[in-house]
Specification:
The chain is mostly helical and 194 residues long. The chain contains 7 helices and no strands. The N and C termini lie close together (10 Å).
Length: 194
Amino acid sequence: MPDRRGSSISAPAALLFQGGIGVVGLLAIWLFDIPVLSGGLGLAQAMLYGVPGALATYVFLLLLTRNSRLFPDDLSSQMQALYKFASSFRWPVLVALSILAGVGEELLFRGAIQGWLLQYTGPWTAVLAASVLFGLVHYMSFTYFVVATGLGLLLGAVYQLSGSLELVMVWHAVYDMLALYCLLTCPDWFGVNR
């Protein structure tokens, strides 16, 4: 069982922070009257495409980051910090954090930021700019920034092509759940000392 003393942030504070990101995204969408794409996918269809998309994305990024020629800096210290944070919470909290991240970060980065930029630039400029901002917010190292930006590019492209914010919300939430599950159950894959 993971050590539950690792994080200095409480579960309610973590949930409130992550939920607050979605509130900021919704407020921005409302205040700036940003059109949000909703491609007509229901939750079942979003799950049908989002779950395998998240799984494929996670496996691809996991394998890609193992290539030391592409990513020479070791991610183990970042993974150690994430492990310490995640292991301090029980699974219901981690699932809730993943869902809140999927919904909230997609409302902010794809719905609000990408949507706002789309009104003033071309679609791929909007995708790229929102993705770089997404990477910067997740910055822990250059490699982590590149991976987060890559994930943002993928989610931004899926949003742009599908027109479904619901799809990228599911994709992101499931991706986060997979990442946390693998990190906590197989920390040695990531060079993490328990």
